[in-house]
Amino acid sequence: MEFFDRPVGGERAILVHLDMRDERQEEDLEEFCLLADSAGVQNIAVVRGSRQRPDPKFFVGSGKVDEIRQLVQEHEADVVLFDHALSPGQERNLERELQCRVIDRTGLILDIFAQRARTYEGNLQVELAQLQHLASRLVRGWTHLERQGGGIGLRGPGETQLETDRRLLKKRLVNLEEKLEKVRQVRAQGRAARQKSAVPTISLVGYTNAGKSTLFNRLTQAGVYEANQLFATLDPTLRRVDLEHYGPVVLADTVGFIRHLPHKLVNAFRATLEETVEADLLLHVVDCASTERDRQIASVDEVLGEVGATAPVLLVYNKLDLLDGREPRIDRDDLGQPVAVWVSARENAGLDLLLTAIAERMAPNRFDGWLLLSAAQGRLRAKLFASGGLLAEEMSEDGGCHIHLRLPRDDLEQMLRREGVALADLQDIPDVSAAPDFDE
Fold this sequence. Notes:
disordered N terminus; Rossmann fold; 440 residues; Alpha-Beta Plaits; seven-stranded mixed beta sheet; elongated
């Protein structure tokens, strides 16, 4: 059962943007216009204003409501878009006054997500977020029939229809949660298989339109859709990449973040964002040419904190070609560890430096070397075989063996501690990951 019709692209829209004096609620008008363009609407006019605090009834003042109504009638607008989160009551009051659909920032982002979703998982997550948003607005269209405290003429079919809709909505939400739980289980199995085979995961995160998909395509030749628009990528994509001096890794492209990303979207897309939470390294892709660079970085960090992502972060300053006189480079901390890389994915500039920096950041977390086991350590040998990280084995004359392992260092040391053995006592040939020969 469908609870609403998704709008067709090309609608005529009036955009409303208020500058709130509380800086925590300040929005960027340019970004709002990009959101509207990404949704495929035709921007007819922009109404601007400022307020100390939102009006409880209309969010904007009564004078602004009159101004918006005149523009709607003059341009025959189909929809009014607000660059703010509206309460269900404010939406209903505005629609009653303006006689057209009113959509807030959350609804606009949801519509863009609905257009971008391509996979089964993506469609499930979008529908879940849409229905969660709809749940508090279900009274729209039924307020004239819903019982307001009882009385003659206010009982019966209106209330019955409303309760039926709510029941069906709740049932569908439970069904979507169950399906997404199965998706989470499948993803967890995939991550477990990668961990068993000692293949780490690197997740690309960043503000929407920072160039994550372009960078992902350059590194993996994956052919992921890329465009100069917000939320061009919605469905996550995973590809294997072989790093020189290190070995194979799995690179994951994820949905972009945005300021004031609604909590219902974060929760609905938790199955996708788990790839970020479980990653061994995060590549935080930043549009280095953006005037809002610092605020965008802070917004991404805020969402990463919400989902519980604690992996190490390597900043990737992308779109270097938009800055005059800047060359690709690696920024390092006082210990010489890479902390940021300046690249241009569109121009294929600095990607070799990025791969070098990734390998350097990953190396301390991995053991890649030979161990010498005696003939009496057969049980340990069997466990190392079962770990999936065995690359080669050579038998010795005394019944022992030399084995070449590539495993997460913590996993290997934990396994050896259970057997009462120290890693240093077994190392036969120096660990190649402990002192990698990287080109500066």
